[in-house]
Amino acid sequence: MTSTEATPFSLELSEDVREVQSWVHEFAKDVIRPAAEEWDEREETPWPLIQEASKVGIYSLDFFATQWMEPTGLGIPVAFEELFWGDAGIGLSIVGTGLAAASVAAVGTPEQIAEWVPQMFGTADDVKLGAFCASEPDAGSDVGSIRARASYDEAAGEWVLNGTKTWATNGGIADVHVIVASVHPELGSRGQASFIVPPNTPGLRQGQKFKKHGIRASHTAEVILDDVRVPAALIIGGKDKFDERIARVREGQRAKGQAAMKTFETTRPTVGAMALGVARAAYDYALQYAREREQFGRKIGDFQAVAFKLADMKCQYDAARLMVHRAAWMARNGKEFTAAEGSMAKLMASEAAVRITEEAIQILGGNGYTREYPVERMHRDSKIFTIFEGTSEIQRLVIGRTITGLPVR
Ligand SMILES: Cc1cc2nc3c(=O)[nH]c(=O)nc-3n(C[C@H](O)[C@H](O)[C@H](O)COP(=O)(O)OP(=O)(O)OC[C@H]3O[C@@H](n4cnc5c(N)ncnc54)[C@H](O)[C@@H]3O)c2cc1C
C-alpha cells in the first residue's frame, strides 16, 4: 500500500473496531475474568477457556485474519488489550498460536499459508494450537547463535531437524510447531530458516515444562528435536527462495526476508497491546479501591499522594496506548519505521505495565500484596512483557541503532 492509499490515523476507533472491542470486552469480563485466579493457581493450559473462545469465534483463524487485515491496523491491538484486561495468562493461551500463525502468514508461500495456518487453530469441536520456537538455552536475545540444525537429505527430499528449543509458548502441546533452525551455521542469522513441523511428527517431543513467576496459565516448555524429518516443501517461504537468498548472502548482498526477524517486527506492537490490557486492569482496580477505601476518616484517593499515583498511572497508560496505536497503524499502512516505532511502543507499554501494576499494589496496601486481590497477579503477569519478544534492553538497542545510524552494542 502506498502512502496515498493509507487509511488516515484517527484517535476515534472505527465502528468495526469499536464493535470488536465491545464483543471481546464482554467475553473478557464474563468468561476470562471469573476464571483468572483458578487457572493462575492451577498453572495449567485453560483448555475450557480456549474452547469457549473458539466456540464464540475469538479463537479462530477467521477472527485473527479479519483483525490483522483491518484497514486502520487497530483491530488486533484493541482486541488483545481487552483479552489481556481479562487475564494475561488466559489471554496468552488464546493468542499464543497467533505468533506461529504470523510467522507462516508473513513469509510463507500461498500453499503453506492455506494448508498450515488453519491447522494451527482447528475448529470449535476440535481445538488445535500452534507454537513458534526460536529461543534456545544459549540463544535468547542472540538469535544469531541458534544451534538447532536443519540439514537437507537430498535422497529422501526431506529436512532433518536436531536441537533443543526452550521457553516455547505452547511448546510440545501444539499441533503445529514452527522451528527456527540453522541451515548454514557459518552465516549466522542469515543462514537460518523456519520450518513447519506437522502434528505427530516422530522425533519432536516436549522437554521440561517451566513453572513461572506470572502468566502461569500459559504453557511454556522446552521442545526437543531428535532427527525430526519434514518434507522439503515445509521450509517456510520455499526451498528455492531460501537457496536464492543464501546465494545472494554469499555474494555479499543484503539478504531480504529473514523469517524470524520479520515475525518479531510485525508482532511487537501487538505485544505492547497485551501489556496495555494488564496495565489498564490494574489501574481500573486501584482507582475503584482508592475511591472506596477510607483511612484517617477520608477516602484514600483524597490523599494527594494516592491521587498523584493514579494520575501518573493514567498518563503512562494513555501515552503507551497512543504509541501502540501509532505503530500498529504504521505497520498496517506500510509506513516505514524510521525510529523503530514498533520497538518504541513495545518498550513503553511493557515498562508502563510493570510500573502501573506495582503502584496498584501500593495503593491497595496489604490487600494488594495478597492473593485475595487481583493486582498481585497482574504485577507478576506484567513482568513478562519486558522480557519476551525482545527484552527492554534489546528494544533500546534497536531504537538506539535506528536513530543514531550507528552499530550500537
Ligand atoms: C514465558 C515466556 C514465553 C516465551 N515464549 C517464547 C516463544 O513462544 N517462542 C520463543 O522463541 N521464545 C519465547 N520466549 C523466549 C524469550 O523471547 C527470551 O526469553 C528473550 O528473548 C530473552 O532471551 P533470554 O531469556 O535468553 O535472555 P538473555 O538474552 O540471556 O538476556 C539476559 C539479560 O541480558 C540482556 N542482554 C542480552 N543481550 C544484550 C545486549 N546486546 N545489550 C544489552 N543487554 C543485553 C537482556 O536484555 C537481559 O536483561 C519466551 C520466554 C518466556 C519467559
Can you describe this structure?
- It comes from Actinomadura parmotrematis.
- Residues 259-403 form the Acyl-CoA dehydrogenase/oxidase C-terminal domain.
- Belongs to the acyl-CoA dehydrogenase family.
- The chain has 409 residues and is an alpha+beta fold.
- The protein has helices at residues 15-42, 47-56, 61-69, 75-86, 88-95, 97-107, 110-121, 239-250, 259-292, 304-332, 341-369, 375-382, 392-404, and strands at residues 130-133, 149-153, 158-169, 176-182, 192-197, 204-209, 220-231, 294-295, 298-299.
- It folds into three domains: 3-121, Butyryl-Coa Dehydrogenase, subunit A, domain 1 (Orthogonal Bundle); 130-250, Butyryl-CoA Dehydrogenase, subunit A, domain 2; 259-404, Butyryl-CoA Dehydrogenase, subunit A, domain 3.
- Helix content is 53%, strand content 14%.
- The strands form three sheets. The protein has a four-stranded antiparallel sheet, with no helix packed on it. Strands 1-4-5 form a three-stranded mixed sheet. A two-stranded antiparallel sheet has the order 8-9.
- The longest helix has 34 residues, at 259-292.
- The chain starts with 14 loop residues before the first helix and ends in a 5-residue tail after the last helix.
- The chain binds flavin-adenine dinucleotide.
- Flavin-adenine dinucleotide is lined by residues 99, 132-135, 140-141, 167-169, 212, 215, 220, 384, 387-389, 391, 393-394, 397.
